[in-house]
Write a structure and sequence with these properties.
Length: 760
């Protein structure tokens, strides 16, 4: 039985044909409130007339395609227009923008089903971007739109339904009209937690079992209503397992914004996926690149990262071996307990094998692993057997090693609850690790945590924090505000000494308000800057330089590192413009890659991307022109964060622990290595010096190195010493747009970088 739902607004649109990756139009929805949208056919009023719901279309122009390409570029462009410099995350004009990119939806090449999501972050109040799999983005494009914008705030819980075959959109409430309860197909209340909600919505919207594979849903969870680190789940129907799978747009609290707008879910249906829907310009070029890549994966994956067998969890042991696994709030890089959460353990005990786990059709790398039939020990679903989407490396590092928990059960249970409650696993781990260190060092006690023993390794306490966030109670409500706010709240409420307050600044692992992702950057100068220079805050998808810097020694000089801090963030940005997954670029390499002059760039795969771009869009690119496309959007985002109150040198200052050892135990854990560095790099004899003296000397040297590298990276990017993009750079890349110049001009004038001849 299907539940009867009240329809608040409907909209019909013309069918469109995608040409070379674009529909050339976007879908705009205000769920409550009328904004200056620029929509061509707006204003479908709600039946009750109490507030306006607006559904309309906007053109995707040649200007947008030239300057912003798609995906994250389109998202940021729309977000810029939607918000003001003082817009905060919970303002109704905050705009959740979702775009799949012009290559998204192809099935010939692995990793082409990504959606990019942007909004003003609930964690940082800056533009955040997050890259997510699942079928929603490609379905949105095949339904007729390159972009979906969600603005406004609804008065009640709503579901947005896009029928991509009937070409209709409806905004619905599932209320039965008397109790205000949302009803599922079986008459029960509609859940908020994603794993239940999605099952209910697949029953409600699919016409039959077979039709479920044509549906994808965006949802969040209960904790996203109370914590600032809410994330979004993008679903796909796993036909072989017969269940809903969830992929996450994790970082920056986009789920919190989604639930604040009172959107329960966005449901899309599209029937008829096939490889030609993007109407590619040169199908044989596209096919040839796909065949090459699939063959390479089939022949080499089992000899390299084994992604098809265990997914990203394969690197847990590797990171531990190279001292890069965050342990106990980034104090250490390895731990004897890692063997208990190694990939071998997950393969043998949990992960379902021999299932092609691609998060979009045609991804033969198939890293989206799952654990079936996992029995939960805590929380509202205690005793239930569920499907866990994981484990992934970040889950094991954030909910395992970084909080000192080397028990695979708690890693997986935390993984499940983060997903269904709508919590960002990475922030959850880093925030909890911070709170645990405060507890272990006696900065806070049981009275402050309301009885929670936040000791390293207490997996049950980590789960309890999640349940508290879901239920809006207890110490979890403080932890759920993130590291930056915890530092302030602990200092204000818990009677800390000035030294303790300073120490929290040193080991609170956030930058620009976002928690660090899960790589131990302390021994890699390039990664320290890679993290702290990120526009959105320290997330590895922008600059993951740690292996080439620390392990392979491919960027030994300051100039090499500065060049890497230009090339890699730009090239990585390109994936987010096109709707591509980075893993097929970097987590498998051609066997002859080591003989290339720049093996760290994987030149063979860059050639593939040049081919598939031409195959779909009909334009031939070079490596340099790819980087230039990204540089436009990257620079735009830097100016965007400047407009919103960040984006200067002072905002790129990292916490001390990301630079080096700040406590005696950290120094002593690598004493031999650090003593050697004192001798060889600083020419100081460590003999006879106390550990504290040695830390002081080492950290002074490392900070000098860090700021030297920042200067070199800024210069390479065409920025001033204060981190402001120069006017000549904007002209060089074709981004000397009046609204951007208006933002940078006062900063450039103050620093003396505004050219005399343009000074009026
Ligand atoms: S490599 Fe993994 S994350 Fe990337 S598209 Fe394939 S299955 Fe999805």
């Amino acid at each position: 039985m299907k539940a009867k739902r009240e329809v608040l607004a409907t909209y019909s649109y013309e069918e469109s044909t995608i040409e070379r990756g674009y529909n050339n139009r976007s879908l705009y929805i205000s769920v409550g409130g009328n904004y200056d949208t620029g929509a061509q056919d707006p204003l479908v009023r709600r039946a009750d007339g109490a507030r306006q719901t607006v559904i309309g279309e906007k053109a995707v122009t040649d200007f947008m395609k030239e300057k912003f390409v798609g995906g994250k570029g389109f998202d940021l462009y729309h977000l810029w227009k939607a918000v003001q410099p003082d817009t905060r995350w919970n303002a109704p004009e905050n705009d959740i923008v979702i775009s799949p990119g012009p290559l998204a939806g192809i099935t010939q090449y692995p990793g082409a089903g990504k959606s990019l999501v942007c909004c003003v972050s609930a964690v940082t109040n800056l533009p955040i971007d997050s890259n997510v799999g699942g079928h929603f983005g490609p379905f949105l494009k095949f339904a007729g739109f390159d972009i979906l914008e969600l603005q406004g705030k609804s008065e009640e819980e709503i579901i947005i339904f896009i029928d991509g075959n009937a070409h209709t959109i409806s905004i619905e409430t599932a209320s039965d009209g008397s109790s205000g309860q949302s009803l599922a197909a079986n008459g029960q209340s509609l859940a908020t937690d994603s794993h239940i909600l999605c099952e209910q919505l697949y029953e409600m919207y699919a016409e039959n079992q077979e039709d479920k594979q044509n549906i994808s849903i965006i949802s969040s969870g209960r904790a996203a209503e109370n914590a600032l680190i809410g994330m979004l789940n993008f679903s796909f129907w796993d036909k072989r397992r017969g269940c809903v799978r969830l992929k996450q747009a994790g970082r920056g609290g986009i789920g919190t914004v989604f639930r604040h707008k009172r959107i329960k879910a966005v449901v899309i249906r599209y029937r008829g996926v096939h490889g030609g829907l993007n109407h590619p310009a040169n199908k044989s070029l596209l096919n040839a690149a796909g065949v090459r890549m699939h063959r390479e994966i089939a022949q080499n994956d089992h000899l390299q990262n084994n992604m098809r067998k265990i997914g990203t969890a394969s690197i847990i042991d590797v990171m531990d071996r190279y001292d890069l696994l965050p342990v106990h709030n980034y104090q250490y890089g390895s731990h004897p307990g890692t063997a208990k959460i190694s990939s071998k353990v997950f393969i043998e005990k949990y992960v379902t094998q021999n299932v092609p786990d691609g998060c979009w059709h045609g991804c033969s790398l198939s890293c989206a692993k799952a654990v079936d039939n996992f029995e939960l020990r805590t929380g509202p679903y205690k005793g239930n057997r569920v499907c866990v989407d994981g484990p992934e490396y970040e889950n094991a590092a954030a909910l395992g090693s970084n909080v000192g928990c080397f028990d695979p059960h708690w890693v997986l249970e935390g993984n499940f609850y983060c997903d269904t409650y709508g919590l960002d696993t990475i922030s959850m781990g880093t925030m909890t690790a911070f709170a645990m260190e405060c507890f272990e060092r006696g900065f806070i006690g049981l009275d402050d945590t309301q009885g929670l023993e936040l000791r390293w390794g207490n997996g049950e306490a980590v789960l309890e924090l999640m349940h508290q966030m879901a239920e809006g109670r207890g110490f979890g409500m403080i932890v759920g505000k993130g590291v930056r706010q915890m530092k302030r709240i602990f200092a204000e409420r818990f009677h800390l000494t000035p030294q303790q307050i300073k120490d929290m600044e040193d080991f609170g692992m956030e930058n620009k308000g976002l928690e660090y992702s899960e790589y131990m950057m302390k021994e890699s100068l390039a990664q320290q800057a890679g993290y702290a220079l990120c526009n959105k805050g320290p997330q590895h998808d922008e600059a993951w330089l740690i292996f080439m810097d620390m392990v392979n020694n491919q960027i030994p000089t300051m100039e090499d590192k500065a060049e890497a801090l230009h090339w890699f963030p730009m090239f990585r940005t390109w994936f987010s413009l096109l709707g591509l997954c980075k893993l097929p670029w970097i987590d498998i390499v051609p066997p002859d890659n080591k003989y290339q002059t720049e093996p760290h760039k994987i030149p063979g795969h860059i050639q593939n991307y040049i081919d598939i771009y031409e195959g779909v869009l009909g334009e031939r690119h070079t490596e340099a022109s790819i980087v230039r496309q990204s540089e436009r959007v990257y620079t735009f985002q830097r100016i965007f964060i400047l407009r919103m109150g960040s984006g200067q040198r002072k905002h790129d200052a990292p916490p001390a622990r990301s630079i080096g050892p700040i406590t005696a135990v950290e120094y002593l854990s690598r004493e031999e290595r650090y003593d050697k560095q004192l001798k060889e790099q600083i020419h100081i004899d460590p003999a006879g010096k106390s550990t504290e003296e040695k830390i002081e000397i080492l950290m002074k040297h490392r900070y000098e190195q860090y700021w030297r590298l920042v200067d070199a990276a800024y210069a390479r990017r065409g920025w001033t010493p204060n981190g402001i993009p120069k006017l000549e750079k904007l002209k060089e890349i074709g981004m000397d747009l009046p609204e951007l110049i208006k933002v940078v001009r006062p900063y450039l004038m103050e620093e003396g970088y505004w050219p005399d001849e343009t000074n009026d």
